[in-house]
Amino acid sequence: xxxxxxxxxxxTLTERDMLGAMEVLSTTSDQAAVLVVLTxxxxxxxxxASSLELLGSPYLxxxxxxxxxxxxxxxxxxxxxxxxxxxxxxxxxxxxxVTGSGDPARRPVQLxxxxxxxxxxxxxxxAMVTAQRTLAGGTTTLAHYFFPRxxxxxxxxxxxxxxxxxxxxxxxxAERLRAFVDPFEAAGEDGExxxxxxxxxxxxxxxxGTRSLSVVTTIAEGQGRRATVSAxxxxxxxxxxxxxxxxxxxxxxxxxxxxxxxxxxxxxxxxLPREVEDPSAADGEG
Length: 286
Fold this sequence. Notes:
- α1 packs across α4 (113-123) and α2 crosses α3.
- The strands form three sheets. A ten-stranded antiparallel β-sheet has the order 2-9-8-7-6-11-12-13-14-10, with helices on both faces. The protein has a two-stranded antiparallel ribbon with strand order 1-4.
- The chain is 27% helix and 29% strand.
- By secondary structure, it is of the alpha+beta class.
């Protein structure tokens, strides 16, 4: 996966889109259930192919898939389920444009308000944390989009291109990440950091006994950090890859540490962007 970063182009969002986004975030829960599941091709139909670049599109990336046809079929399915309304009949008022440019009345379709909220939130995170995990069966990705006032949207991308969205409470995110990067509950006891070259560290973490290898990346305020988590049959080890903007050389010295479940959760918690700026506060509102 390419370096993780929130989208840089300003999307066009209306008051209705933002109301949908607020409705989605209001469903937050420590035991967040799946709010909606979308396929690669449905997301492409709703938000374009570029919206899949960040987390990938496992289904549409297959050579045998004709992406445009798949997206067109997906849009028909969304219309049939009344999640998308074509034409102008029965539309709700979009309200004023909040960000971006363009005339909302010229949109070819209108999304169900909650669905519009999910798509809007994917476009405008203030910060992100992604975890890309590789197992024997393939690669999956767990992403968290962060917003002001402890708002979080979670997106889990399966190996066959299903995107599961949920709205976990911020205090539960570190534990959800811990369970994702240690799927076999292999973490044992904490160990002392071991110094080695980056080249040797990577080789060690990707060794023959590795059952799960995860790369966790944080992006906030234009800066990022990355860590690698390796799990075998009886331990979990963590490599701090350091800041993204200071990529280490293969011969640079790094540290690898065996961690317990509690320590792993603490490490992941430290990577979370705790303080996300609230634009309204900067304007003296609220």
